[in-house]
Amino acid sequence: MKANRSENFVNSLDMLSFDNSFVRELPADPDTRNRVRQVSQACYSLVQPTPVARPQTVAYAREVAELLGLSSADCETEQFAQVFAGNQLLPGMEPFAMCYGGHQFGNWAGQLGDGRAINLGEVVNDRSQRWMLQLKGAGPTPYSRRGDGLAVLRSSVREFLCSEAMHHLGVPTTRALSLVLTGEQVTRDMFYDGHPKLEPGAIVCRVAPSFIRFGSFQVHGWRNEIDLLRQLVNYCIRTDFPHLGEPSTEVYLQWFAEICRTTAELMVHWMRVGFVHGVMNTDNMSILGQTIDYGPYGWLEDYDPRWTPNTTDAQGRRYSFGQQPQIALWNLAQLANAIYPLIEQTEPLQQSLQLYGDVYQHDWRQMMARKLGFEQFDPASDEELVKELEQVLMLVETDMTIFYRQLAALDADADAADEVLIEPLHEAYYQPEQLTRESRGRIGRWLRNYLARVRQDGLPDLERAARMNAVNPKYVLRNYLAQLAIDKSETGDHSLVNELLEVLRRPYTEQTGKEQYADKRPEWARDRAGCSMLSCSS
Ligand code: AMP
Ligand code: MG
């Protein structure tokens, strides 16, 4: 069968096997007209993607294709572009948009829903794994509110590349199969300042076991649709948490505890790699503890816990880097409120929220120990060391990613004047001339303490470097790199999107000839839109 397939290049697309449990097991909106409205007593609305003019595949992720049982040859066909632009449905696809609500920037926003995402169906692969396919930007749905249901190339490149980059970094995330141009233009007022512009339209096909969000439960709690809430929770447990067993009050509690744990783990990952989501609204929180909805996200360049890439959040900084763990907890508390009617006990839900804090603290310490190359986190010495490191990183503009890679290369026995000791770190400083005598002294002191701590463990330098370099990436999707890829793509040259996809497949490995993608942000990008600040407009 396989041999036959490749000999004749029979497209495997038509052979994808769909099992659409979400639409089968949960109630649908009986109204099938595609117009904006409130949808109660339903988990989704059936809706068709809007056909587009000239689909053209810009990039695809071969690993995601493989998960589905598709080859690279399949992804290079015209049919692939047609299907993942929403122009052609494969046998077994049943497109729908999900109903959900959410808290946006701390305020209850009511019904939100898939305003520009259309789920196509659940592929079951030959390993019996279930993967929901979802087009983002495939046209309006009943949940589009005032939006057009479309997405532009700019934001689609960002979502496509970052999903895959995060996966290869080892951070739980939804995946991206494809990035397809629609051949149509979309109007966007990028900075909401009355200067709308035409931009190329594009569609990303996202792939995940489930796209259920915290807000998916909140909307039913808010509408007092308790039976429906129970139905959705039961479905979610049976489908995505089968190891918990048949739903019961006890299982609901275990389920919530697991969500608290995986969310804590996710936050530790974000803090490890310097990722700032930018819009941690409860509708953007996956029930699976995966990173979801890549909008105005950013990568920490200069280490600054107060940094947020999202211009909409510049005032309150609710979603800034250092706030993320706390916000995740706040979001979990909202989820607890939403599912409370099924449980009617406060205490065990509180305990899970407590568990979030415990898991976060424990894992964060282990993660910091690994970043620094220690065998274990030793609270007696490391608490203080890590606290001082945070201060040291903030003395002058310091690139977090480069700093840790340079740290790994230090000789544990180095003992020299401050000047010499901090020399290898220079690459991490945006403006080394900002280093005063005092700050050099402080950095030098920290380095001396750090190296003493390293010697305590007694790992050989090479071994320590290898361990550190396995958790401290060399290559991340720097904000300006994504922007360079977008600029090029907008001229019709998609080579940089594909090159970055390739480099970011091995983020921890030194790659000869690709060093420029590990460079710190150039000066021109400091204040350029898309590089240091982003809006939600996408
Ligand atoms: P986000 O902040 O991107 O997660 O979006 C919040 C809500 O707005 C979600 O319900 C989205 O589906 C919806 N939305 C965002 N952009 C658009 C758009 N262009 N058209 C329709 N709905 C949108
Ligand atoms: Mg969203």
Structure write-up:
With 538 residues, this protein is of the alpha+beta class. The protein folds into four domains: 12-214, no CATH class; 234-370, no CATH class; 374-458; 479-525, no CATH class. Helix content is 41%, strand content 12%. The protein has 18 helices and eleven strands. It has helices at residues 2-8, 21-25, 62-68, 72-75, 78-83, 153-169, 214-222, 226-240, 249-273, 324-343, 347-372, 379-395, 400-408, 418-422, 437-457, 461-469, 479-490, 495-503; strands at 44-46, 56-60, 96-98, 101-104, 107-111, 117-124, 130-136, 175-188, 197-208, 275-276, 298-299. The strands form four sheets. Strands 2-8-9-7-6 form a five-stranded antiparallel beta sheet. The chain has a two-stranded antiparallel sheet with strand order 1-3. The radius of gyration is 24 Å and the shape is globular. It binds adenosine monophosphate (AMP) and magnesium ion. Residues 283-284, 293 line the site of magnesium ion.
